[in-house]
Write a structure and sequence with these properties.
The protein is mainly alpha-helical and 195 residues long. It is 68% helix and 4% strand. The protein folds into two domains: 67 residues, Multidrug-efflux Transporter Regulator, Chain: A, Domain 2 (Orthogonal Bundle), CATH 1.10.1660; 110 residues, no CATH class. It is built from nine helices and three strands. A three-stranded antiparallel β-sheet has the order 1-3-2. β2 and β3 form a beta hairpin. It is elongated, with a radius of gyration of 22 Å.
Length: 195
Amino acid sequence: MDTENRTWRVGELAEATGLSVRTLHHYDEIGLLQPSERTGSGHRQYDAADVRRLHRIVALRGFGLSLAEVGRVLDGELADPRGLIRTQLELVEEQLAAASRVRDKLLGVLDGLDRAHEPSAQTLIELIEVTTVMNRTLTREEYEAMAETRRRLTAELTPEEREAMDVRRRKAMEVLSAEELERMRQVREALIPKG
């Protein structure tokens, strides 16, 4: 099929890309991605150039840019991108560190399973938390479900397991600088749903 000469209705583009129709409508409303055409009845029609712009939007959002920042980059309004790139680099470094922690936890669980030991509830709690919050802001429902799961699993721990967890947490916090603690607080705050 010749994709350079075809058009996509909003539902077709949403289905093809995995984005929601609502997201595409929002991008149109804020002027970030306006369809090149509209049908006689007002339906959005996206062409290949629109798809290319959408790809750039998704890529820039993947670097952690806000929609306003994405718009400025795409419209050539960002004169000096160094500050933006530094911010992106910090975000990528945080994501790499989080991914490394997930990897370490998974290797520990796998090692325990290889030795026919069931991972402790605490290990699973930490793995769930690190995996869940690694890449995105949680919805209110996800945050509440995660908090409830954490409370339930913590309640199932023996006093010894809870004490060991507290000791590990204290030791981990003690080695962090004030700057690292503040960055961690900011990252956690960004992940928690507003309201």
